[in-house]
Amino acid sequence: MKKRYTGVSGTINALLPVQAKNFRIGFVGQDLPGAQLAKQNTPDHFGHLTVWQAIRLSRKSLPDGRPRIWHVRRDPEMMLAIFLRDATSSGIRPNMTVISGFGLVGVVKVAYANSALVQLASDPAFKIGARIAGSQQIGILSGQGSRTGFLQLLDNSDPVKVGDAILARGSVNSRPFVPGVPIGEVTSVDNSASAITQTAEVKFYTNFTTLGVVAVVVSAPSADPRDALVPAKPKPTPTPTVTVTVTPSPTPSSNG
Description:
alpha+beta
């Protein structure tokens, strides 16, 4: 759980010490004050689980054969994320860039013993310094809970256009973000005269609903690739044109 509490986390925080007196509770995630109190007062009824321990436990029935019931609630406090297996054994650590074959996926937030939590770029709490390929204008891109991100430029010196490619600007020492990673393409622009800065919607190159294999950048590139990684624009398939020429039949001679 995150440090900023919603009403849901506040309720869990208050109930954990009470529930631990009557039930055995396994807790996954960052400690809440209530979790610490439950662990102190009822150590035999309260324990921490790793994510994979919780997953394995969920697949086992209770001793009397009844299935385990899990209640999952989703609210803005929760993070849009994926889990990576065999993470730390591969040198993966927090604040490393995660990419797919199409572009940016997100950033490693937590590295566990044998797995890692990756915050997706689509998460509403996600932000990254970005720049426009070509003009090099910089701005901040935020997730919106979907495949569309929101870009706010820091100045209006050059207009942003539909079709512009957006790349990662890069962080100090390339952590958490390495430079030059393709993020997405501008699909709409708000150039209102009253706006202080330009804003745009960006479609991520990565489709987060079909992720399979991803890669983690474990070492910084030797040089900024600049615009070298901008995906090539798809070329339209030419439509073949068929020309039919009609040759008139010869007219019979009147002297024939």
